[in-house]
Amino acid sequence: MDNYEIERKVKEYFLNACSRLDRIRYAQESAYVDALIGRLDGELDFGDGNGSIIFTPTIVADRGPGCAENLYGADFAIVFKSANVEEPIHKAILSQAKNGTVDKMPKGEVIRLSEQCEKMARFTNSYIVLEAPSDDGAMPTVRIGTPSSKSWGKIRMGLDDYFLELVLSCRHGDKRQGFVNAVASSKLSGLTIDVDGIEYTPTPKPRKKIDNNRGNTP
Known about the structure:
- By secondary structure, the protein is an alpha+beta fold.
- The chain has one domain (3-200).
- Helix content is 31%, strand content 26%.
- The chain has helices spanning 3-18, 29-39, 68-72, 107-123, 159-168, 177-185; strands at 42-45, 52-58, 76-83, 90-99, 127-132, 141-146, 151-158, 189-196.
- It has an 8-stranded mixed sheet with strand order 1-2-8-3-4-5-6-7, with helices on both faces.
- The longest helix has 17 residues, at 107-123.
- It starts with a helix and ends in a 22-residue tail after the last strand.
- Mean pLDDT is 91; it is low at 210-218.
């Protein structure tokens, strides 16, 4: 199956999952995350022996002191496993969710997120910050964690693009078996993704030309 068809079906699947997420019913980050991973539950079948992707959510109610979320600094985890491909992968990613863009958060929330990123960075270099959108049905965005600074990157990308370009293509995720097993057996809410027979390499995107006449900078 070619890249275009994989991209089309994956983006459609994620858009359908997000379409009924309204921010009145799911106002808090934890409620939004639980609803999002619950909506992703299901199988994306590419038909005719072309492979499949199965999304299995696990929602955990315990978010009190001493819980896994407090230990890892994460709201939820992604555990990814591929089979029937040239190089099977088993990996995990931690994630912390925030309402809106992190650039517009109050100072106190920025400090709290920094502390949560520092916790996640103790366990893995593979973590993300998920930005829950303010608009109903919109696609959440992702900031890739920067473990060297125990923070997050400036570039934002849609969750669907993150899944395609970095998760499915195996460019992001912690493959240490001990870490994967610990996350999989923890009491973190999470999304298990089982990929069967799907290999995806993102198509390189053309770099934008810089218009020096307009004073643009790289």
